[in-house]
Amino acid sequence: MVAALVRRVRDAGRSDTGGAVGVVQSHILFVLLAGGHACKIRKALNLGFLDFRMPAERRFDCEEEFRMNRRLAPALYLGGLPITGLIARPEFSGDGPVLDWAVHMRAFPQDAQWDHAIALGRLEPRQIDELAGVLWPFHRDASRHAVAESCTDGKAFGRPAAVRAAVLECLGTLQTLLGGEAERARVAELTRWEAQAFGALRGAFARRAREGFVREVHGDLHL
């Protein structure tokens, strides 16, 4: 249903503006691009580590993306947008029932992403230094920000059980998806290694959580 909705939103945008509306995809998103704006719509899928099958879950994740990412990119993140109206003629923030939700952003050239820039030889040391200058105080002061949290606040994230739960969930999902005996054997070997590694690192995880080194900051520095 979400894919059909995206097609109709795209077609409505083309009809209303007379311009092109591009659509790009990631493994979890449809991104509509038009007129210097981007609208990110979650796919209705369950990957184990995330579950976007229900509209309420997609709305929550949109709100979380905006809340968290706006802290470092306020000029790019503009807000959450309801997709409203009828499935045959949807629109953003219009009248009628809410069909789904999107994150509204200012669009930027894809070659501005660092993975593209470095491939083109355009990433310079000064840019890396500038990013470090932004991230270091953000990490340093995260536990004092009203918009950030530390695991010392009584939160579960970062504590040993939470760290391990995410890993075990991924391993469990792999076991259900892999069909070959050799592949399942590799996952079983990885599962045994995980148990040994977690046992060795449990104390370090607990210490980092106790001392406030696990904080809600960001998780998207792919390069």
Give an overview in words.
The protein has 2 domains: 2-108, no CATH class; 141-210, no CATH class. It has a 6-stranded antiparallel β-sheet with strand order 1-2-3-6-4-5, with helices on both faces. The two termini are 33 Å apart. It has helices spanning 2-17, 55-69, 114-119, 125-140, 160-177, 181-210; strands at 22-25, 29-34, 37-42, 77-86, 89-92, 98-106. The mean pLDDT is 86. Helix content is 45%, strand content 17%. The protein has 6 helices and 6 strands, in the order αβββαβββαααα. By secondary structure, the chain is α+β, with helices and mostly antiparallel strands.
Main sheet strand line-up: 1-2-3-6-4-5
Beta strand %: 15-25%
Shape: globular
The N- and C-terminal alpha carbons lie at a distance of: 33 Å
Keywords:
alpha+beta, 6 helices, 2 domains, six-stranded antiparallel beta sheet, globular
What is shown here, in short?
This protein has 223 residues and is an alpha+beta fold.
Indicate the topology.
Layout: H1 2-17, E1 22-25, E2 29-34, E3 37-42, H2 55-69, E4 77-86, E5 89-92, E6 98-106, H3 114-119, H4 125-140, H5 160-177, H6 181-210
Antiparallel strand pairs: 1-2, 2-3, 3-6, 4-5, 4-6
Helix pairs in contact: 5-6
